Every structure is written in structure tokens, then in C-alpha cells.
């Protein structure tokens, strides 16, 4: 039976030990042997100690009544409930409580100072990277001129068709059909096993006994799969099936030939124009570099006219135009 004491569970109660200071008999039982059986010397309760683990003498049916007290007359340790000393008969009024064995708190873990070294190394490395990147990306101003505009356009072609897909049941679209589901593991969950994992400590009851306590108990869990329905199904929807591209010079962007025309209908096999993606280029003449093509965003592409002057940044290391400077 595991008793409860405060916020801890008592697993077992055992006899504390003491050594006779008169004849040096060792390992006497602190609860059962209040005086030395060899010489009759009285027990010094302040020098009780814990037995080695695995060598404890268990105490059954122990009723804790409080810490022992010293007889004011003969100094023999007596139970807390006694009114008179069992050794000399003196009244126990005003008797002092035994000190007991104090278990020192475990020292806090030593804080490693390695983190300081790592921080210093990390900061040094970061500074080195920043300086290296800054050095490699050094730029200088250069004058230039926009020679021409160019472009590329990619257009997707979508088809309305049956598509087979697989999703979890709750993720299926409402218009799914030909649904076939099977059980599959979707995730895992922690399930209590009914067991607890506890820390243990030994505590002096100060009445000649000690106890083994369990504390800071946590539920032991195991990982179990969470199953769910994974379903394959057919759904009809617009899907990009191909794309066509065009390119040219100037600022008039045109679609590639061969795109679907006519009214768009949601019928099997119908096709329509899908997503358009445009890429813009400026052809430049830059002093000290010569001709170079830059891919730019739409705003920069429209900002300059053919023949317009442009000041650009040139990367010192590569002698190439930094196209983001346009």
C-alpha cells in the first residue's frame, strides 16, 4: 500500500541506522534499538543515517506520530506521543526535537560557458559574412542608355476534364464522385498507459524511520496511430494541360498563336485561355561594359523609353549591371 504524505506518495518505510558512540557498534536500528544491545549506550538521534539502497529494513504497519524528542533528563530519544521517558521515567515536558537527516538540495546544474564562445564565434562569423557579402556586392555608378525593350509571354491552356485525386474524406470537394475510401494513418496521438513515471527521494521521518517517496509524477503515454478515411475520387474541373509562348521586341506584348477562342463552357473537353505570365527585358548600352540585357519588373520596363538615358549600378567584382538598380 502506498500512503500519501503532502504532495508525495510514500512507497515504503524503513528503519534509520545509528552507530554506538561508546562501543562503536555500527548499523543499529534507530526505531527498534534505542540503546546499544552491546553496551547499553544511548542512541544519539542527531547522528542517524540512511541505510544503503537495497539494504533497508522495512517497517510494516508504521503509524507516524511525529518527530522524536530528547528526554530532558537522560537525553534518550523518545517517541513524540510519550509523556514520560521510557528510559528514566522523567516527564517529557519541554523536550527538544531531534534534528534528523537533512537531504541537501541537488546543486543547480553548472551553467556551461561554452555558449559565450559560440556567441562570440557566431557574431564573428556573421560579421565576416556581412563584410564579405558587402565586399562582393560593392557597386559603382555608371551611365547608360536604353537601346530597346523586349518581352516573353507564356499562356496556359486549361481543359475541362475528369481528374482523379486522393484526399482525406473531410477534404474532398462536394462534387466528388466514384469515391473509394480506405483506412490510413493520418497522425498519431499520445495515450496514457495508466502508469506514472515518478522521481524518488528518501526522507527522514525523525522518529527512527525513514521513507521512500515518489514525487513529481507524470503520466506515461504511448504513441498510437490516428486512423481516418483516405479517399480516391473523380472530380471534373479546369486543369492546365499545356502552354504556349511568344516573344518579341518593343512594348506591344502579343499572345502566342493557337490559343482557344470562342465562348467558354463547362463541358468535357472544352478549353480556355488560362494564366498569362510576362517577362520584361531592357537592352542597355553601359559605359565601360557595353551591351547587356536586364530582366526587370513591369514598372521599370515602362519607365524608360527607347533611347532614354539611365544611371545604373555596376557590380565591381563582376563588372555586370545590377538590374535591380533600374
User: Kindly, what is the distance between the CA atoms of the first and last residues, rounded to a whole number of angstroms?
Assistant: 82 Å
Largest sheet geometry: 9 strands, antiparallel
Which structural class should the secondary elements be placed in?
Answer: mainly beta
Overall form: elongated
State the helical fraction: under 10%
Radius of gyration: 44 Å
Approximately what portion of the residues adopt beta-strand conformation? over 45%
Mean pLDDT: 90
Give me the strand/helix succession: EEEEEEHEEEEEHEE
- Helix tally equals 2
Uncertain segments are none
**What is the tally of beta strands?**
13
Quick summary:
This protein is mainly beta and 326 residues long.
Written description of the protein model:
By secondary structure, the chain is mainly β. It has a domain at 150-254 and 264-325. It has helices spanning 114-136, 298-303; strands at 3-5, 8-15, 17-18, 28-29, 69-70, 77-78, 139-168, 177-204, 209-249, 271-286, 290-296, 309-315, 320-322. The strands form 3 sheets. Strands 1, 2, 7, 8, 9, 10, 11, 12 and 13 form a 9-stranded antiparallel beta sheet that branches. A two-stranded antiparallel ribbon has the order 3-4. β10 (271-286) and β11 (290-296) form a beta hairpin. The longest helix has 23 residues, at 114-136.
Task: Fill in the keyword field for this structure.
9% helix; two-stranded antiparallel ribbon
